[in-house]
TrEMBL record:
Source species of the chain: Salinisphaera aquimarina
Domain of life assignment: Bacteria
Gene name in the database record: plsB
Protein name: Glycerol-3-phosphate acyltransferase
Catalytic class of the enzyme: transferase
Cellular compartments annotated: Cell membrane
Keyword Membrane: yes
Enzyme nomenclature, EC number: 2.3.1.15
Length: 833
């Protein structure tokens, strides 16, 4: 063996160029501008170990991306025209003297500066399994012999990741009071911590064989207790119960396969290029810092398409971050898709755990294993895909399990990352429309549906996809702020119960996650144009008006952003934005001598509501303010703010707006200032605000802006007017019956107004309104009945001021209909529920 190694090292110079040709590298981050290398400072690359192969991979990557070429340091110092590479020292190695020389130079020459860039090289990136023979022979590891390293390169060289860390602040690191040897030791410690964390962030924890994992689940104390309870309750043997638990574990557990991941990577790269015009990814640098600093990361994305399962994992893999295990509905576990997704990290869960304590115990044990090992995971807080484009009310079961696992036991440092996913056009939107109309029942997925759907999907382009990683929530810090005694409470928690304090805590956290998703939304040209077009009475807009309104609303989004993480269009030219949105929206141009008119077919107009609903919350506050000027030329700023603050809780609960009620006034003030800066409002005398002159493009934009929240305000006005009507007939209402009355009234209004929008009479929205009215004290629950507070009359009057006389008359007429209580929702509405 030693003879072979010496033979290979003798001919290494001859092997250099063939090896360089064989190595295929991928750089992380994909946008190397993130590392912000200065052009006026020399560069010193630092590798975790001395390896000629790692140096070759670095050399290939630098050549591909135009970075300074790395030369072996030797006795040379880094210069502007000559970058060097060195490795962390081991013992009294040559690398230690090289590092000592660079540190000493900085201590003696105050003008000397260098950018020290830590570089990690990963060969293969497979989430290897413990005790695997493949790991022993070919899987990458931190320290290997030369022969094994050559075998690793030959086996995995086509899939090599080269990760560049942020440069160390060399001058700030130096301490004139310390000796060079002390500084070298300190620098080595800092770099070793960085490399260790980077390796964990890229590869994740080592995985056990699936059989070992399943055996560990069955040995879990809670599962053992559940096995005994099941055997006693069902009067069966322990072996029968254990066999069922093993079947559950096999149904749930993922089974990583490097081959499957490599296959899916190639398929997805082809697929994204085939159906999308690109994937816009935001806030990766912050996410990278989070994965580097936290042991456990839980991704909680919005759920709008089956493509969500693949898109986030694809991005994380491409960006050199560890693949998460993904909670997928058991409806996707059909041949052959289920097995393929399982090998790419999917684990399956049933829609409901009720009535099966053994399944619940096995699933909870699986979640415990993932979190305690620091395995990244991903699940959808909404539970299922949104059929309307709005965020659904969160389902808290899975989050509750994750919280109890992370806060209990060892209390692993955990970051929850909200993720916004949006599309110019969702490929399932036609199916969603039919389901909402009640013309197509929901049904489970199958291979036949997949094949038929794929043939249709591949024939079309769907614009761009948008993924934005929100502000991470440090779970332990959040618990300290909202549940100060959580350590004692978690220690005494019975896993088979969900006490009220835990439900309330998880409920607040889930709402915080939904607000975080919306706070990082991306405003795209298609969504913005849909907002404008769908707000017009007949879904028709003159081209010039569309162009001007696009420019003004995009400027408003930049001047007064919804949140620091929300992304406004970078394009400032309205015609360019229209050109981008037109093919995806499938606009119809009606030629006219005075300029083209843009419109859409009736069904397409309904389909566009999905994209509109993705981003309408970004304009919720400006739209609310604009509605106060729909029927009045001027308003007093102070009075306007008081009325808007009163309406804010209803919009906040429907759209998961990010400001708590006590911050609503400040947020509305900021929105007004943004509208003033954009010319959508004009400041008058004595604290008055007025709308722009009629006929100006600013006036047209203000009208368009007001229509964004018009439907929500109409629904709200219906609800409070119906409640006000019940004040005259008795102050007690039965909750379920009243919800049906609201739904019927909205359905009737939709028919009378010609509004072809099934979501307008969505029963869940009215349920949400009632919950909010309870929270702000206008309704008082009494079992399944509710008592109406007298102060609701004033709220109803304020709500009606925002509506035109025709709508006020329609609502007043509908609330006075006889036998209102005996009415039943339409068949289509019942089908949707």
């Amino acid at each position: 063996m030693s003879f072979l190694v010496r033979f290979l090292m003798l001919f290494m110079p001859l092997l250099r160029w063939p090896l360089r040709a064989w190595i295929n590298t991928h750089a992380s981050p994909s946008d190397l501008d993130e590392i912000a290398l200065a052009t006026d400072k020399p560069v010193c690359y630092v590798l975790p170990v001395g390896s000629v192969m790692d140096w070759l991979a670095l050399e290939v990557t630098c050549a591909e991306h135009g970075l300074p070429r790395p030369y072996l340091a030797g006795n040379a110092m880094p210069r502007l025209n000559r970058a060097v590479v060195l490795a962390l020292p081991v013992g009294r190695s040559r690398a230690r003297s090289e590092l000592h020389r660079i540190v000493s130079r900085g201590l003696h020459d105050k003008s000397f500066d260098v950018q020290m860039v830590p570089v990690s090289v990963f060969w293969g990136r497979n989430p290897v399994k413990e005790t695997s023979l493949f790991r022993i022979l070919f899987a990458d590891s931190e320290r290997t012999g030369r022969l094994r390293k050559l075998l690793i390169v030959l086996a995995n060289g086509r899939n090599t990741l080269v990760h560049f860390g942020q440069p160390l602040d060399y001058r700030a690191f130096l301490d004139e009071q310390a000796a060079p040897a002390t500084l070298v030791r300190k620098l080595v410690r800092v770099l070793r911590v960085h490399f260790r964390r980077q390796r964990a962030a890229t590869l994740g924890p080592p995985l056990s064989r699936r059989s070992q994992l399943i055996n560990s689940l069955l040995a879990d104390p809670d599962v053992q207790h559940s096995l005994e309870e099941t055997a006693r309750r069902e009067n069966t043997t322990l072996s029968v119960a254990r066999s069922r638990a093993r079947d559950y574990a096999n149904e749930i557990a993922a089974d990583y396969s490097n081959i499957a991941i490599g296959f899916m990577l190639r398929v997805l790269t082809w697929l994204w290029n085939r159906i999308y015009d690109g994937v816009d990814v935001r806030h990766l640098q912050r996410l990278r810092a989070t994965t580097h600093d936290r042991r456990e990361v839980i991704y909680l994305p919005s759920h709008r398409s089956h493509m969500d399962y693949l898109l986030v994992s694809y991005i994380l893999y491409q960006e050199g971050l560890a693949l998460p295990q993904i909670a997928a509905g058991v409806n996707l576990n059909f041949w052959p898709v289920g097995a393929l997704l399982r090998r790419c990290g999917a684990f399956y869960l049933r829609r409901s755990f009720k009535g099966d304590r053994l399944y619940t115990a096995v699933f909870r044990a699986y979640v415990d294993v993932l979190i305690q090992r620091g395995q990244p995971m991903k699940f959808y807080p909404e539970g299922g895909r949104s059929r309307t484009g709005r965020l659904l009310a969160p389902q808290t079961g899975m989050l509750s399990m994750a919280v109890t696992s992370a806060l209990g036991g060892n209390g692993a440092p955990t970051a929850i990352v909200p993720v916004y996913i949006g599309y110019d056009r969702v490929m399932e939107v036609n199916k969603y429309f039919d389901e909402l109309r009640g013309t197509r029942p929901k049904k489970g997925e199958s291979m036949g549906d997949l094949v038929r759907g794929s043939t249709k999907v591949l024939k079309h382009k769907y614009g761009r996809a948008f993924v934005s990683f929100g502000q991470p929530i440090d779970l332990q810090e959040y618990a300290d702020a909202h549940l100060p005694d959580w350590r004692a409470q978690m220690a005494d928690l019975d896993v088979d119960t969900r006490p009220k304090w835990l439900q309330e805590f998880v409920g607040k956290l889930s709402n915080r996650v939904m607000e975080g998703i919306n706070a990082t939304a991306t405003l795209n040209a298609t969504g913005l144009a849909s907002l404008i077009l769908l707000g017009s009475p007949q879904k028709a807009v003159a081209e010039d008006e569309m162009v001007h309104t696009l420019e003004l609303l995009a400027e408003l989004a930049r001047v007064s952003p919804y949140s620091p993480d929300a992304s406004a269009p970078s394009e400032t030219d309205g015609r360019a934005m229209l050109a981008e949105a037109e093919p995806t929206m499938r606009l119809i141009r009606v030629p006219h001598a005075w300029g083209d008119v843009l419109t859409v077919e009736s069904r397409q107009g309904v389909l566009l509501t999905y994209g509109r609903n993705n981003v309408m919350h970004l304009f919720a506050l400006p739209s609310l303010i604009a509605n106060f000027f729909a029927h009045f030329e001027q308003r007093n700023r102070k009075t306007l703010l008081a009325d808007a603050v009163e309406l804010y809780p209803l919009l906040a609960s429907e759209l998961f707006l990010r400001w708590p009620a006590d911050q609503a006034q400040a947020a509305l003030e900021q929105a007004i200032d943004g509208m003033l800066a954009s010319g959508l409002l004009v400041a008058g005398e004595r604290g008055r605000l007025r709308r722009p002159e009629a006929g100006t493009r600013e006036f047209a934009a203000l009208v368009s802006l007001s229509r964004i929240m018009r439907e929500a305000l109409e629904r709200y006005a219906m609800t409070v007017m119906l409640l006000s009507h019940h004040l005259d007939t008795g102050r007690i209402i039965e909750r379920g019956r009243f919800e049906r009355q609201c739904q019927l009234m909205a359905e009737r209004m939709a028919i009378l107004s010609g509004r072809n929008s099934p979501e307008f009479f969505d029963l869940r929205l009215f349920r949400n309104y009632l919950q909010t009215l309870v929270r702000i004290g206008l309704l008082h629950p009494q079992g399944n009945r509710m008592h109406i507070d007298e102060s609701l009359r004033n709220v109803a009057e304020h709500a009606l001021r925002l509506l035109g006389s025709d709508l006020r008359q329609s609502i007043a007429h509908l609330t006075s209909l006889p036998h209102l209580e005996d009415a039943q929702p339409s068949a289509a509405a019942v089908q949707r529920e």
